[in-house]
Design brief:
Strand order of the largest sheet: 1-2
Number of domains: 1
Strand content: under 5%
Number of helices: 10
Largest sheet: 2 strands, antiparallel
Structural class: mainly alpha
Shape: globular
Distance between the termini: 54 Å
Oligomer: single chain
Radius of gyration: 18 Å
């Protein structure tokens, strides 16, 4: 995202909701750990979705600004709430690894004088894949996520349409793990494609539209997680009878 887009994002853009405040010692010192209680009402689902959407977009904006500590903190806020079975320290580690992925991706795509083909064939994409594998292991996501996501980034960076299928597969793997099933896979993957296109606009309109779609994206995920957990409990009770 560009500087003009970054400048338009501030705390007033979206309400993040009020969550419990715990302190975690990290690279930033004492970090606020905002792991929200499981949402139950429509308002709670919406508030948490806003929190996640705001932070994922802020994570990319702060990365583009070069403020990597702030970017890490924003991605941490996403992982700590999506992966409720993962410890805060592991969520923080995942955020740090993801920042390394973005930095390495930038190094490849912005290599002086490289042609499109040279960017696609750059051997450093294997380093990106290795980082994504560490990221996957840290959060417990299937390892196949690393290959799909690496290729999503690799082809998207040069506007090669092959990125579309890799994007859909990357999102399917990630959110099927978060939710516990693939019921929403095609819809969520399609929304990630929209979010990718909004990011590519590099202007305030793209940012604002992306935020709206991101809120809905996370709202679907959060509600799907709640339904999946409810179904699991029902099945466990039925099996014990």
């Amino acid at each position: 995202m560009g500087q003009s887009e970054s400048a338009s994002l501030d705390q007033s853009t979206v309400s993040q909701g009020g969550f419990g405040d715990v302190r975690l010692s990290s690279g930033l010192g004492l970090l606020s750990v905002q792991r929200a209680p499981r949402p139950k009402t429509p308002e709670e689902f919406r508030d948490l979705a806003k929190h996640l959407a705001y932070n994922v977009i802020t994570g990319y904006v702060e990365h583009d600004r070069g403020r990597l500590d702030k970017s890490t903190e924003s991605f941490f806020q996403v992982y700590i709430n999506l992966f409720t079975d993962v410890s805060p320290m592991l969520a923080w580690t995942a955020a740090e690894i993801y920042i390394q992925v973005l930095v390495k991706q930038d190094e490849i795509e912005n290599h002086p004088g490289h042609t499109t083909n040279q960017i696609v064939e750059d051997s450093r994409w294997e380093e990106v894949k290795a980082l994504l594998l560490d990221f996957s292991k840290t959060l417990g996501v299937p390892e196949s996520y690393a290959d799909s996501t690496m290729n999503y980034y690799r082809f998207h960076g040069v506007r090669d349409s092959r990125y579309v299928n890799y994007c859909l597969e990357s999102d399917r793997i990630f959110n099927s793990h978060v939710i516990g099933n693939e019921y929403w896979a095609k819809i969520l993957g399609s929304m990630l494609l929209i979010l990718t296109e909004c990011h590519d606009k590099h202007d305030p309109a793209g940012l604002e539209t992306g935020l709206e779609f991101a809120i809905r994206y996370y709202e679907i995920i959060l509600k799907a997680v709640a339904l999946s957990q409810k179904a699991l409990v029902i099945n466990q009770v039925s099996a014990s009878l």
